[in-house]
Design a protein that fits this description.
- Helix 4 packs antiparallel against helix 11.
- With about 300 residues, the chain is mainly alpha-helical.
- About 80% of the residues lie in helices and about 0% in strands.
- The protein has one domain.
Length: about 300
């Protein structure tokens, strides 16, 4: 990997963020593809595959990478893996299955606001007042995205919708903590963004193994072979595309962009999740959803413009 801090640029950072969002949007479809499996099973399946792939990829350079990682960084990797992977995906899967893709996307759509507001406290960050137009556009887009889901009669019971909303908020809090902590850890570590991603995969895979006995007690693991084949395909696909490639793009972007701009890049995950949802439901976006897309894009452009003016 090249030295990102020296050779990076805002443009390549934004492209990396778009690529990560396009791949991460796939995780919203996974719970729908295998609805017969619970959130804990989905998380274990995805992250066992993520851990196994990380182990294979990091093996040739493992000794050098381990020598470059400080003891305190292992603690950081442990809580980052829990907040950004294991716990987040359990919450996300439960939210999608209980409340639907639209409502979950709405709540996750507020991630940029949370990350950008917290990131504005960093030294040399763009003042929050200058980011106000971008944040307002972001909030408007997120409200438009989920307005129909909240205003229309719920497709399921009120209790299920409430559980879905609570899980989506849990995912929001969990990933906000990850996005901020991961960006700051990447600024300190001596390993490359790709190696950091693989180390995160190793730790996440270990956490998935630790959760397996709990899932065996709580979940139903008696499934027909065809369902297990679909589950395996979804788990492997999400692990490779979202966790390996998507996380690598996100980590590269986290080194190229300031934290206040990193928050805006999370919007691409929401956009692509909705696009995949439309394809899954075989329909076109409504005028309100198209308006949401315009607001989200305007939010990102406004945030980039604010950073260029500061520079």
């Amino acid at each position: 990997m090249p030295p990102d801090r020296k050779d990076g640029s805002t443009f390549s950072g934004v492209l990396s963020g778009m690529g990560a969002g396009a791949l991460w949007g796939l995780v919203f479809l996974a719970p729908e593809l295998v609805r017969g499996f619970g959130p804990l099973q989905l998380s274990i399946g995805r992250y066992l595959c993520y851990g196994a792939a990380s182990a294979v990829l990091v093996a040739p350079r493992l000794r050098r990478v381990l020598a470059a990682v400080e003891p305190r960084e292992w603690l950081s990797l442990a809580w980052l893996a829990l907040a950004g992977n294991t716990l987040y995906y359990v919450f996300l899967s439960a939210a999608v299955q209980a409340g639907g893709v639209a409502m979950t996307s709405l709540v996750i759509g507020f991630l940029p606001v949370a990350v950008t507001v917290i990131g504005s406290r960093d030294r040399d960050a763009v003042p929050l007042a200058r980011l106000a137009p971008s944040l307002l556009l972001c909030a408007g887009g997120a409200v438009c995205i989920g307005w129909q889901a909240l205003a229309a009669p719920a497709s399921g019971a009120a209790g299920s919708q409430a559980i879905g909303l609570a899980c989506a908020i849990g995912a929001l809090v969990s990933w906000t903590a990850f996005a901020i902590g991961n960006a700051r850890c990447l600024a300190r570590t001596r390993v490359s963004v790709h190696e950091w991603n693989l180390l995160t995969g190793l730790v996440t895979g270990a956490q998935a193994l630790a959760l397996l006995p709990l899932s065996l007690l709580l979940d139903d693991w008696s499934r027909p072979p065809a369902e297990w084949l679909t589950f395996a395909g979804v788990s492997i696909g999400v692990a490779l595309f979202a966790s390996i490639v998507g996380n690598a793009l996100w980590n590269r972007m986290s080194r190229l962009l300031p934290l206040t701009l990193v928050g805006q890049m999370i919007l691409f995950e929401t956009l692509f999740a909705l696009l995949y949802g439309f394809a899954w439901e075989h329909r076109l976006p409504t005028p309100l959803e198209l308006g949401a897309f315009a607001l989200v894009v305007a939010s990102v452009v406004s945030c980039i413009s604010a950073h260029r003016r500061k520079r």
